[in-house]
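Module 6 notes. Inverse folding takes a fixed backbone as the condition and produces residue identities as the prediction. Think of it as a translation problem where the source language is geometry and the target language is the twenty amino acids. Below is one complete input and output pair. Work through it position by position during the lab.
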């Protein structure tokens, strides 16, 4: 089984940066496309960035050019570097499998609040 733990969230001013980390247990992680999802109050959870085991990346238009997803397969870590943060980025952020792979149990997520 894969267990996911997100960290790195916090309070940041508009224009600031945060680096989120997702640690995953389980040997299948290295074979899985992974993504960062977020859920804002009153909205559905949405995929904002994904990365394949080969390193290919995709981004939602709302974060394109500002967020960068990366991974360290050997360490079972997926990162989300968030720059030029906007108030609309405020949400709970989660990692999980992506690109059609079966989801595993959601972690607790990490909260990102962008506010002055």
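Target side of the pair, the amino acids:
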């Amino acid at each position: 089984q894969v267990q996911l733990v997100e960290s790195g969230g916090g309070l940041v001013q508009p224009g600031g940066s945060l680096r989120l980390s997702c640690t995953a247990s389980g040997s299948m992680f290295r074979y899985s496309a992974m993504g960062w999802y977020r859920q804002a109050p009153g909205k559905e959870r949405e995929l904002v960035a994904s990365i394949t085991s080969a390193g290919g990346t995709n981004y939602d238009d709302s974060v394109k050019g500002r967020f960068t997803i990366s991974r360290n397969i050997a360490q079972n870590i997926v990162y989300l570097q968030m720059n030029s943060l906007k108030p609309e980025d405020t949400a709970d952020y989660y990692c999980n499998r992506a690109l059609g792979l079966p989801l595993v149990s959601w972690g607790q997520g990490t909260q990102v609040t962008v506010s002055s």
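Reference fact for the lab report: The mean pLDDT is 94.
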